[in-house]
Amino acid sequence: MGSMVQITARDGGTFDAYLATAQGGSGPALVLIQEIFGVNHLMRYQADCFAAKGFTVIVPDLFWRQEPGVMITDQSEADWQKAFQLFQGFDADKGVDDIAATVDYIRGQSSTGKVGAIGWCLGGRLAFLTAARTNIDAAVSYYGVALDDNLGEATSIGGKLLMHVAAKDDFVPPESQEKIKSALADNPKVELHVYEGCNHAFARPGGANFVQDAALKADDRTLTFLKSTIA
C-alpha cells in the first residue's frame, strides 16, 4: 500500500499524489497518468503492481485544478457523465506542467536517476505530450485520445515513446489513426503497436472492452520497454 504526498505546482499551489515505494526500497521512477476517472482504485492498484515489480511509482492528481481527490469508476452512467465533464474542462497544457513537476519530484527518488511515464486514454495523450515537452526518459501511451493537433510535436521527443493503439477505438477514428501512424512512422524514438479488433480501453481490467490477450501483450511490451529505457 502506498501513501499520499504533496507536490508543488510550477505556477503555485500544491496537489496530491499517490506514492508507492518499490519493493526492496528503491527502484527506477515511474509516473502513472490517470484516465478520466481520477486517481481511483484502479490507478492505485496499478501503482502497487508496478511497485511490486521494483519501480518507485507516483500518480499525480491531475484534476486538482477542477476538483481535488476525484475517485470515480467506469461502472455507472453518473460516473461517466462526471468523467466527461472533467475531461471537457481539463487544461492539457497545465496537466503536462503538473506532470513535469511530478517528474522533478520523483527523479530524486529514482535508483537510476531516470523516470518513465505510463498513461491511459486521457493519460495516453498526456504521455505523448510529456515525451515531447518534458525531460522524461521514456513514456508509454495506451490508446491516447485527441492527438491529431499535437502530432507535429513528435519531433521534440527527447527520450523514447511506446504507443499502444486500438484498431477499433471508438474515440480515435481510422482517419486519426492513419495520421498518428504516418506522423510517427519514421521517428526512431517511437515504437508503435496496433491491436487488431480491440476497442478503446482494451487494457483496463474489469472494463467493458477488456481483452485479456491483447492487454497481456501490451503490458509485456511495456515492461520490456521500461527495463530497456529507465532500469
Automatic annotation (TrEMBL):
Alphabetized GO MF terms: hydrolase activity
SUPFAM superfamilies in the cross-refs: alpha/beta-Hydrolases (SSF53474)
Gene3D superfamilies: alpha/beta hydrolase
InterPro entries for this protein: AB_hydrolase_fold, Dienelactn_hydro, Dienelactone_hydrolase-like
The Dienelactone hydrolase domain, residue ranges: 15-228
Superkingdom of origin: Bacteria
Record's protein name: Carboxymethylenebutenolidase
